[in-house]
C-alpha cells in the first residue's frame, strides 16, 4: 500500500510511504483496539455515574445513618463466627454517664389539610447519627415530637447505649411518658372515663416498648430560646418537614 502524505503545510511536496500488508494489518488491529478501549471507557464512565447516583440515594436514607448499618457484613451458611462489634461513635454525655440527645418536631400548617411535619434528632455538631426526616403517617406537631423521641431511643439501642437523656421542648411528650402512660396502659390504652383511644396510641406504644430496659431521663427546655441543641434539632425537623408527603 502507498500512502501519500503532504503533512500540515500545503506547500510541501507529496511524500509517498510504502507499507506491506503486514504493517497495514498491524495498523488496523491497533486502531480497532483503540476503538474498543474507547467504547469500554465510555461504558465504564456511564456505569460509574449510575453507581454514584445510587450511592448518593442510599446515603440519604435515614436508616443508612444508623450505627448498626455502618458495620455491614455478610454471613455465609458455613460461617458461625462471633458477631462483629457494633460501630463506635463518640456521644456527648452528662457527668453521670447519660448520653445527651436533643429531639424536636416541626409541623407547618398544623391541623390543616396541607400540613407537613418532620423530626429532628441532634447529638452534636456534624454527628453521623443526627437525623432529619419527615414523619410517618399524619402530619401533626405531636406526631413529630413523639417520633423524634422514637428515633433517638432507637439509635441509642442500636449502639448499645442504655442511659439516655432526652432533651425536648415538648412538655406534652414528657408528661405522657412520665405520668399519663401508666394509666393508659392500665386502661388498655383508653382515655379516662372510656372516652376513646389515646391519641397517638401507636407511636406511644412503640416509644414505650423501646424504652424498656433502658434508663431514660426526660429533660424539658423552652423552645426557641437560643439553646444550641434545641435550635439544631428544630432546624433538622424543619428540613424533614419539607420532605413530607401525605400517606395515600
TrEMBL record:
Family statement drawn from the similarity comment of this UniProt entry: Belongs to the RNase H family.
Pfam families in the cross-refs: RNase_H
Entries under SUPFAM superfamilies matching the protein: Ribonuclease H-like
GO terms of molecular function: magnesium ion binding; nucleic acid binding; RNA-DNA hybrid ribonuclease activity
All residue ranges annotated as the RNase H type-1 domain in the record: 95-242
UniProt GO BP: DNA replication, removal of RNA primer
InterPro entries given in the database record: RNase_H, RNase_H1_euk, RNaseH-like_sf, RNaseH_domain, RNaseH_sf
Protein name, as recorded: RNase H type-1 domain-containing protein
Amino acid at each position: 500500500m502507498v500512502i501519500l502524505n503532504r503533512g500540515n503545510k500545503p506547500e510541501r511536496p507529496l511524500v509517498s510511504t510504502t507499507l506491506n500488508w503486514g504493517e497495514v494489518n498491524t495498523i488496523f488491529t491497533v486502531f480497532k483496539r483503540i476503538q474498543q478501549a474507547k467504547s469500554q471507557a465510555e461504558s465504564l464512565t456511564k456505569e460509574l455515574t449510575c453507581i454514584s447516583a445510587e450511592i448518593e440515594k442510599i446515603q440519604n436514607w435515614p436508616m443508612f445513618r444508623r450505627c448498626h448499618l455502618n458495620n455491614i457484613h455478610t454471613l455465609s451458611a458455613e460461617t458461625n463466627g462471633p458477631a462483629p462489634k457494633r460501630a463506635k461513635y463518640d456521644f456527648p454525655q452528662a457527668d453521670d454517664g447519660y448520653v445527651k440527645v436533643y429531639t424536636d418536631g416541626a409541623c407547618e400548617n398544623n391541623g390543616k389539610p396541607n400540613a407537613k411535619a418532620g423530626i429532628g434528632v441532634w447529638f452534636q455538631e456534624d454527628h453521623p447519627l443526627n437525623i432529619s426526616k419527615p414523619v410517618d403517617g399524619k402530619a401533626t406537631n405531636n406526631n413529630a415530637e413523639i417520633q423524634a423521641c422514637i428515633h433517638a431511643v432507637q439509635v441509642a439501642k442500636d449502639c448499645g447505649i442504655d442511659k439516655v437523656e432526652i432533651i425536648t421542648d415538648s412538655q406534652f411528650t414528657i408528661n405522657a411518658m412520665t405520668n399519663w402512660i401508666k394509666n393508659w396502659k392500665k386502661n388498655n390504652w383508653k382515655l379516662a372515663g372510656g372516652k376513646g383511644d389515646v391519641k397517638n396510641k401507636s407511636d406511644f406504644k412503640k416509644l414505650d416498648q423501646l424504652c424498656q430496659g433502658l434508663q431514660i431521663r426526660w429533660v424539658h427546655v423552652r423552645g426557641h430560646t437560643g439553646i444550641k441543641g434545641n435550635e439544631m434539632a428544630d432546624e433538622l425537623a424543619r428540613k424533614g418537614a419539607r420532605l413530607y408527603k401525605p400517606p395515600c
